[in-house]
Amino acid sequence: MYEDTIAAIATPLGEGGIGIVRVSGPEAVEIAKPIFRAKNKNWTAAGSHRLFYGHIVDRAGVVVDEALLSYMQAPHTYTREDVVEINCHGGIVPLRRVLELVLGCGARLAEPGEFSKRAFLNGRLDLAQAESVIDIIRARTDAGLKLAVSQLRGELSRHIFSLQHKLLGLLAQLEAVVDFPEEGLEESAAAEIMVMSKDLLSEIEKLIKGAETGKIYREGISTVIIGRPNVGKSSLLNAMLREDRAIVTEIPGTTRDMIEEIINIRGIPLKIIDTAGLRETEDEVEKIGVARTRDSIGRADLILLVLDAARGLTGGDRSILESIGEKKSIILLNKVDVAEIKIEQGEVESLAPGSPVLWISAKQETGLSELEDTIVDMVLGGRAPSSDTVLVASLRHKQALEKAASHLAEAINGIHGKLPLDMVSIDLRSAWESLGEITGSSSTEELLDRIFADFCIGK
Ligand code: GDP
Fold it and tell me: CA end-to-end span of the chain, whole Å?
C-alpha cells in the first residue's frame, strides 16, 4: 500500500453537467474534510459507499461549488485504497479550483494511469485487466467494447493462468525425473513432456493467430477512399456514414482536417483517413495529383477505389489500378444506375488481379451490403470469432505470447535433441515467465511505467 494520497480530475476537460475530482489514498478523507461542508455533519461516520450533499469551500470558507461527494472505504474500491470522489460542476474553472484545494490539503497530483496502476499493484486487477480499462474507454464499436469488457472481467487472464498452470505441471513432472533419476524413467517422461509441450504450443499459436482479429476490433482498419474527382467518393462516404453507425471525432490539438471518421461495419471499425482530401474541389485535387493518392495508399490497410462507370477508364485510373499492388483493395464501379455504362469489368479485373470488383450506386445506395460483406471477408478472412473465443487484442500481449511460443519450441527441440532435462526445464520456465508478462505475474517496474504512461491522468 502507498503512503501518499493522489488526486486528479477524472473527467474530460471541457463543459459538462458534472465533473469529478478523484482522490485515492490513506489521507483521502482527511483531505476532503476541511474543504467539504457537508449537509450531514457526520458524513465520515455515516459509512462507506455513500453519497453526500454539500459545498466545496476554500480556506477562507468561501463557497467554490455545490457538490456531491462519494466516500468509498478501502478495500472495496477501484484502487483498494480509501477513495473520495467529488462530483462538482463540469467546467474547467470549478474542476481546477476543487483540484487545487485538494492538492493544497496534502494530496499529490496523480500521474497518468496511476489510479489503475495502484489497482494493479494492490491486487485488485491483474495487468491485462488494468490495460483493458483503456480499451473500454477507447472502444470504437460494440464488438470492440465487448472484447475489452471480457478482458476486464478476466477471461483472457484466466486462459493465460490455465496455460501457466499446465506449464507448471510439466515443470513439476520434469523436476521429479531430474531429482530421482531412475533407469528408463527419463525417456518415457521426455516423451510425455514432448506431447504436452506440443499441445501447449498449439494453444498459444491459436491465441497468436487470433490476435490479428483482436487487433482489428480494437484498433480498426485504416481505410482510404480513392479515385478521380467526381467519381462519387464523398457520396460513398456519406452513404456509408449514414445509418447511425458512425463516430466522428475531432482529434484535439490539430486543425480541422484531422477529423477521424469511423464507420462500424459489423463491429469492425473502419477508420476513414484523409477525409479532408475527399472534400477538396476538383481544382485542388488536380494540383495535388496522383502523388497524394499514392501516399494515402501507402498509409492504408484497406483501399476502396471508386471508378466512374458512366465515364470509362482514364489513363490515371489505369495507373492507380496498377499501383494498388498487394494492398487489400476493393474496386467499386460507381453510378451503376446511369443509362450508359462505359466501363468493362474484365479490363478492371485484369489491371488489378485479385481485387474484388463490385457494382454500386452511391447515390441510390445500391450494392452497399455486398460491399460490407466483401469488407468483412477481406478483413477477417473467414476468421470471424465466435462469441466464446478468447481474443488477444494488444500488441504487447501478442509479443509476450510469441516469446512464450519460441521458448516452448526451444524446449521441444531440446527434448528432441536429447538435451538433459534440466536444460529443457530452463526453457519451460522462460515460457512460463513470458506468459506472466501478460497478467503481470512477472513484470518489471519499467514495463509497468511504459504501460500506465499510455493512460490519461485520472484513470
Ligand atoms: P467525389 O469528387 O469523388 O467525392 O464525387 P462526389 O461524391 O462529389 O460525386 C460527384 C458527382 O457524382 C455528384 O454530382 C454526385 O451526385 C454524382 N454521383 C455520385 N454517385 C453517384 C451514383 O451512384 N450515380 C449517379 N448517377 N451519380 C452519382
Answer: 18
How far, in Å, from the CA of 175 to the mean position of ligand 1?
71
The alpha carbon of 364 and the centre of ligand 1 are apart by a number of angstroms equal to: 10
Residue ranges around ligand 1 (CB below 6 Å): 227, 229-235, 278, 334-335, 337-338, 361-363
Distance CA 422, CA 431 (A): 15
Q: pLDDT tens digits for 285-305?
A: 555 556 666 777 888 899 999
Most informative mutation of 225, 228, 235, 341 for ligand 1 (most atoms within 8 A of CB): 235
DSSP state of 391: -
pLDDT in tens, 27-77: 999 999 999 999 999 999 999 999 999 999 999 999 999 999 999 999 999
Q: How far is the CA of 231 from the centre of ligand 1 (A)?
A: 6
Count of alpha carbons within 13 Å of 402, Cβ hemisphere only?
Answer: 10
pLDDT at 401: 97
Cα of 255 from ligand 1 centre, angstroms: 27
Q: Please report, for residues 118, 235, 299, the alpha-carbon distance to residue 102 in angstroms, rounded to integers and kept in the order given.
A: 19, 52, 45
C-alpha cell at 78: 477501484
Closest ligand 1 atom to 227 CA: 3
pLDDT > 70: what percent of the chain?
90
Q: In what order do the strands lie in the sheet with 268-272?
A: 246-250, 259-265, 268-272, 221-226, 302-308, 328-334, 357-359
* CA 293 – CA 311 distance, rounded (Å): 20
Check residue 341 and give its pLDDT: 86
With bands split at pLDDT 50, 70 and 90, how would you rate the model's confidence at 253? Answer: very low
pTM of the model: 0.79
The Å distance, Cα 265 to ligand 1 centre, comes to 22
